[in-house]
Records
---
Amino acid sequence: MSTETDNATAFGISGASGWLVGGALGGAIGAAAFGVLMWVLDPAIVEVAIPSIYGLEPVGLVGWGVHVVHGIGLGLVFGLLVTRDPILGILLTDVETDAVSGVGAMARIVGAGFVFGLAVWAILPLLVLPVWADVAGGGGAVGEFPTAAIESLLGHLLFGTVLGAVFAATVDLHGRSTDRPLED
């Protein structure tokens, strides 16, 4: 196999629960990267808007803590999805198309993280958050949360990409036997 596989095996977390650690770690680091981007662009999002979603007072690092906890939860969802046989089988399948043939499994997992970040952006801030704000009364900083802003999209894509990269670097997925639906 490639050195990519050797590195993941040497340093990766293997076993049935490796995806839990990789997902939580990737989610925390991805959320931190997303949080730094938001903080640079508009610190009030992290400091005020995120705690106000839950009715919390914007005191100290509450917004950062909530944001990282969100990232860990989403990282666990990513790890669960990516390690299931249908998705993992597709990610590890050898393909003969020019566009994908030179891309290794680690890069495909990073790409899956990118797509996951896009899906999270499409579902949580665009669909769930407005409904949540209406149910909760919709006032204050929750109503001003930048759901469809380009910064939110870029932050979620950054989150997903970092999540995928950390997950791919820490979890050994090559030892798993899966059905590879795209191979004959």
Note: Residues 3-169 form one domain.
---
Amino acid sequence: MDKIINCIIINGPNINMLGVREPELYSNKTLKEIEGNLYTLSKELSIHIETFQSNSEGKLVDFIQDNYQQADGFIINPAALSCYGYSMLEALIATKVPFIEVHLSNIYARERWHSDSIFSSKAVAVMAGMKDYIYESGVRAMCHYISENNRKTEE
């Protein structure tokens, strides 16, 4: 039996899956709907999805260090950490667990792409979109990345 993939979604300061920082940019989905969609996706892909959110970079780093051994991939929304979250970036890199960076905004929301993110150069993928699908897309991308790398390792 194959090992179940464990994806961990981490949301940084001042933002959660509802995009509370800029609610006018997002549709009226509730947190229960988003969590429900992730639960449905986890059953469809036969994976485990866990979420974590904190307004403290130290708590985010502690969470990564305490949980990386159970993680096959991280989906991170660093939000306010995008320009200065070096401790979180260093913690992610030290784990050697792949991560995808996602952003809860469309590309034009701030009239620029998130090119100043310190995470983007180390992430296996960088994605932006509305909350209706960005976490599902991040999880699907991570599962694809893991399965492709497993296939290359087996060859």
Note: The chain has one domain: 5-154.
